[in-house]
TrEMBL record:
This is ABC transporter permease. It comes from the Bacteria. Transmembrane segments: none annotated. Belongs to the leucine-binding protein family. Residues 1-29 form the signal peptide. Keywords: Signal. Pfam families: Peripla_BP_6 (PF13458). Gene3D superfamilies: 3.40.50.2300. Residues 36-374 form the Leucine-binding protein domain.
Length: 397
């Protein structure tokens, strides 16, 4: 027995040594800069904004895939959470990603109210946050921080550009309509700022609760007020319903309808004839002729069998921005200051056109005037060149 067990013991010992050695090797490979990077993807995957969340996630993953699955040498692990566009659950959801799942980066979200809660959690825990849609002015205003970046827009940006456009069309009296929450209210405020500075007057500000899609009462009020034009903020499934209802109410040919471009982005197949000819302003458009945009659209269509929209672009650019930071520190996120500096200085080669970050970490970008033609938001002209959000209340510490 003794003689029998000796070789077995030697074998077991040898395996133990081997296991220790390979354990050490693995530990080396898993050193902070080489272990997978955990990205907490907090987006809406149900509800009126679900298609927007999916497009953002697709765009983000497309860029990572184009880099061979690594950013700054790190592979990416995704921790996915459906935020349901529900601000009442947002703090708890974001905290769970940070404290329970230990994500390295938070990516989210679409809804401004949810994003503001995420920004507070990111600030309190010093977690890097990249906002790939929500335009809440506060995120790059009073809530601005070195660890918070946005790759989309502020609610003020497309709205302000549209205020000037509508004034230039000779409209004097405008009625606005939006969901009653931060995004819509800030969009209307941005529109009004530019429109009234140019001599127009917003004569009524109508709202419906988010995410209601019952617009009959407001359409009746608009018909009675007979304004020169209507400006709205709606997106996703709500935008589809509103554009169809506006046309069905017989208003489309009587009172010109304008909106921030979310009204017609990613929605045109469902809106059909009701959307034809509508003018909107946004930081992306169909018909941009750059090789960068054409390459992106081709890859996106091949990968997902879908046409990209503005949300896909914003997700793609969120990955580009994160990549710029990670490359600068060779994937070592403990070098946070150097990483943030690289992200601040990055020139993002976006399908929308190149952009840089403002001091408040919001894109400084061109805003296009687009017109619906078939299933496209065709670029008409650049309504505002290199437009920077005023970042009111931002004190970067
Ligand atoms: C927002 O809540 O900020 C938002 C949602 C959808 C489209 C654009 C903005």
């Amino acid at each position: 027995m003794i003689f029998d067990s000796a070789p077995k013991f030697r074998l077991a010992f040898a395996s133990l040594v081997l296991a220790c050695v390979s354990g050490a090797a693995q530990a080396q490979a898993q050193a902070p800069s080489a272990a997978p990077l955990k990205v907490g993807v907090m987006l809406p995957f149900t509800g009126t904004y679900a298609p927007l969340g999916v497009a953002i996630e697709n765009g983000f993953k497309l860029y990572v895939q184009q880099q061979g699955g690594r950013l700054g040498g790190r592979t990416i692990d995704y921790v996915r959470l459906d935020d349901e566009s529900d601000p009442s659950k947002a703090s708890e959801n974001a905290s769970r990603l940070v404290k329970r799942d230990h994500v390295d980066v938070l990516l989210g979200t679409v809804h401004s109210g949810v994003a503001m809660a995420m920004a507070k959690v990111a600030k309190d825990t010093n977690t890097l946050l990249i906002v790939p849609n929500a335009g809440a002015d506060n995120v790059t205003g009073p809530l601005c921080a070195p660890n918070i970046f946005r790759t989309s827009f502020s609610n003020w940006q497309p709205a302000y550009a549209m205020g000037k456009v509508v004034a230039s069309k000779g409209a004097k009296r405008v009625v606005t309509l939006t969901w009653k929450y931060a995004a819509g209210e800030e969009s209307v405020r941005g529109f009004k700022e530019a429109f009234e500075a140019a001599g127009g007057k917003v004569v009524d500000e109508l709202t419906v609760p988010f995410p209601n899609v019952e617009f009959q009462a407001q359409l009746t009020q608009i018909a009675a007020a007979k304004p020169d034009a209507v400006y709205v903020f709606f997106a996703g499934a709500g935008a589809v319903k509103f554009v169809k209802d506006y046309a069905a109410a017989g208003l489309k040919d009587k009172i010109p309808l304008y909106g921030a471009g979310f009204l017609t982005d990613g929605t045109l197949e469902a809106q059909g004839d009701a959307a034809q000819g509508l003018l909107t302003t946004l930081h992306y458009a169909d018909g941009l002729t750059s090789a960068r945009d054409q390459g992106f659209r081709l890859d996106y269509a091949k990968t997902y069998k879908l046409q990209p929209d503005v949300y896909a672009v914003q997700g793609y650019d969120a990955a580009q921005l994160l990549g710029a930071g990670l490359v600068a520190v060779k994937g070592d996120m403990t070098q946070r200051d150097a990483m943030v500096r690289a992200m601040e200085q990055a020139k993002i080669d976006s399908p929308r056109g190149p952009f840089v970050m403002s001091k408040a970490h919001n894109p400084v970008q061109d805003i296009y005037l687009r017109q619906v033609n078939g299933h496209e938001n065709r670029v008409v002209l650049v309504a505002a060149k290199g437009l920077a959000d005023p970042a009111r209340g931002c004190r970067m510490n």
